[in-house]
Amino acid sequence: MNDSHETHKTVHLALQGGGAHGAFTWGVLDALLLDGRLRLSGISGTSAGAVNAVALAHGWARALADGQDPAEGARASLARVWTRVMELGALGDGAARLGRLLMGVLPGALTRLSPYQANPLDHNPLRRLIEREIDFEQLARLKSPRVFVAATDVETGRADIFSGKRLTAQAVMASCCLPQLFQAPEINGRRYWDGGYSANPALGPLVELGETSDILLVQINPLRRPGPATTEAEIADRASDLTFNASLIAQMRTIALVNELLTLGVAGEGHKPIHMHRIDGGAALAAMPPASKRVPRPATLEALFALGQDSARRWLKRHWAAVGEKSSVNLRRDYGDPLKLQVEPATDRDAADAGDAARAHAHAWPAYALWSPEEQARAAHQANAATQQAVRAAMTAPPSWVANP
Length: 405
Prior knowledge:
The chain is an alpha/beta fold.
């Protein structure tokens, strides 16, 4: 840990899931822990983010109990877990069929079968790794940082958050359970799938925890990919990105809305805006081949680790001053405006095309149904204004998870 810095700031960590690309998050965490200026209050993780969260907290708790540097203990724990993952990825062809299941790839012969047929004994190398490496009883006694892991209830589709004594190896398995690959883990009579379907990651528990208004998101699923998706692999990858970013986008839009209501003074007294920060791999991570997300090959994980370290150092250099003061992420630009319909103004070419289409289908659409571009823009403006007024009227008090000062 770097103790030469006079200033320390407290943040929550939000760790997104994304298969083997979780090694990028490992690199980010390693660099942040080595730098030593950030104090961690809460950690929320989903899927691979959940693995990183419990590995960090386990090493932290173990080092505290042994009277050692908790940051160094956390770094060592993360390195040990990902070294085991790399060992699985380096296994021979026969054993690698199960080893590669850890991060989400099926042997071709099994793709037409459900996991209840293809893997009836529910073999899962990740479960054995987590049970061997993480002391959950010691983790439950850790006061800070608090750890939250999200999984999706199969019946309701809602996120279930596991923390404290409820946080077990089975809960981490639930958070990592891709239903095409593994049987749904059962906890207290409920069955769970990957937390990415409902909260990737869950931000609400961090806001409710309070202690700081700053949340640092480590995002590994790109918001945008340039170019069309035309091949089977490209379509599957883009669909996966959209699915596993949907809950994050919704949460970020909600935070943008709450922050605006606080700025306008209509959310009540005694509350603070939420400062959002983000570390991602940018174009370098988005350019990684699709298979790299599913197969934990050692060389790929090492490259992702190094990319994560570099990205964290760059973020610290550029955005350290913003922590505790303001968001360093433009939520409206990157995640959308929650109060506005996404209606683009029609261009002249769009208007001409629309006119051609209208004439071609005049027999199906009556004249009164054919809106001009001006009418469309006016209606969209009116709808936006009405939506904004309704939301502000409904939110005379802030949500229960708005942080108290």
